[in-house]
Amino acid sequence: MNKEVIVVGGGAAGFFAAIHIARSGLPVTILEKTPNLLSKVRISGGGRCNVLPACYDVEQLYLHYPRGGRFLRKLFYEFGPREAYEWFSRQGVALKTEADGRVFPASDSSETIVQCLMRAAEEAGVKVCTRADVVELKPATEGQWSVVLASGKSLPAAAVVLTTGGGNKHKHYAWIESLGLSVVPPVPSLFTFNIEDAALRGLQGVSVPAARVTLPQWKMTEEGPLLVTHWGMSGPAVLRLSAWGARLLHEAAYQTQVRVNWIGVLPAVMEARLRETIKQNPDKKLKNTYVGLPKRLWVYLCQRAQLSEEITWKQLSNKQLQTLLCLLCADEYEISGKTTFKEEFVTCGGVDLREVSAKTMMSKKLPGLFFAGEILDIDGITGGFNFQAAWTTAYMAATGVRRFLFG
């Protein structure tokens, strides 16, 4: 009987699954509808590729996934960040861990990871076909699936692994739903907040290392670096907050309030700092004392507090001090929309995990059909967690394929 395995999708999960399946001796073909392979890997992390997170405690790791964390928990014990780190190291990739817990190739180039995966696939005998757009899957009859291409060609397969990534519109999953499978409607995750405030946008490029960002409507808070952009706010704190609040923000049409603690400390702590500054620098002008913030941001906040550029610390009234303190620790803006990066689009939604076996990544309804990567209703916050979910689910799918075909 033909034991050809077809992997649909030439991204991170597709290559990782194909490599592990092929290494078990099974013939594998990757079908990629575009002319480009591993495109998300190439552009991730600004071209550096945050290949995985340095989070090796599974009981902490799975908590970084707004959707799918509990599903992944047991899988991480089988193949988690430690195993992924060791796998890439065995392939000759030197990795480095940065202070914020993100792991990158030591080369600081995503091309290192791309070439690693392509080389490993070639050495394992994986066949790769680009411009191969799959338009239909016909369930197995007599142990053989039929994979139909846009060209009209039909390919037989003993098992099919879907690693097509996350679609940003529900219609992208129509061909999967036509198989009788359930799909959780996709909405964007990991996006920046658009804010219609010309003065704030004028701070484009300003960043703070440890902001505390809150969505008061849902009492959701994240901490971390924040970046002011020409459209509003970005940076890890904002992106993580957008991930946890993805569905709520979608339902609110991305119109809600955001509160920012620019300094990341409690108001009482900040007030003590300001009063100490008054004591130590009474005659110094506020505009020349930045209290740990970038100068442009500090001047902007002083202007928002309607403080004169010439005012000194000893001239500051208690009411003015409280106004400044409020802006430092609870500055508020109206979110008017979102901005997503098309190439790095991450979805909240996908194939319903209740219909997928966590042990094998195989469909509970259709034997011989497997899933890995972002096509599943799994998404993590920034920091390499989405790539780790791809490596883990792909490895488990490969294991599932082997068990299915070899028994």
Please give the count of helices. 14
Described by strand count, sense and barrel closure, the largest sheet is: 6 strands, antiparallel, barrel
Cα-based radius of gyration, to the nearest Å: 25 Å
Q: Could you tell me the CATH topology label of the largest domain.
A: FAD/NAD(P)-binding domain
CATH architecture grouping of the largest domain: 3-Layer(bba) Sandwich
Q: If strands are numbered along the chain, what order do they take across the biggest sheet?
A: 12-15-14-13-16-17
Assign an overall shape.
elongated
Describe the structure.
It is a single chain. Helix 11 crosses helix 13. The model has no long low-confidence stretch (mean pLDDT 95). The chain has a six-stranded antiparallel β-barrel. The chain has a five-stranded parallel beta sheet with strand order 6-2-1-10-19, with helices on one face. A hairpin with a 4-residue loop joins strand 8 (144-149) and strand 9. It is of the alpha+beta class and 407 residues long. The protein has two domains: 5-188 and 342-406, FAD/NAD(P)-binding domain, CATH 3.50.50.60; 191-339, no CATH class. Helices cover 35% and strands 24% of the residues.
SSE diagram, text form:
Elements: E1 5-8, H1 12-22, E2 28-31, H2 39-47, E3 52-53, H3 58-61, H4 69-78, H5 81-90, E4 95-97, E5 102-105, H6 110-124, E6 127-129, E7 134-141, E8 144-149, E9 154-157, E10 159-162, H7 174-177, E11 183-189, E12 192-195, H8 198-201, E13 207-215, E14 220-228, E15 232-234, H9 236-244, H10 246-251, E16 256-261, H11 267-280, H12 295-304, H13 318-330, E17 331-339, E18 346-351, E19 369-371, H14 385-406
Parallel strand pairs: 1-2, 1-10, 2-6, 10-19
Antiparallel strand pairs: 3-5, 4-5, 7-8, 8-9, 11-18, 12-15, 12-17, 13-14, 13-16, 14-15, 16-17
Helix pairs in contact: 1-6, 1-14, 2-6, 4-14, 11-13
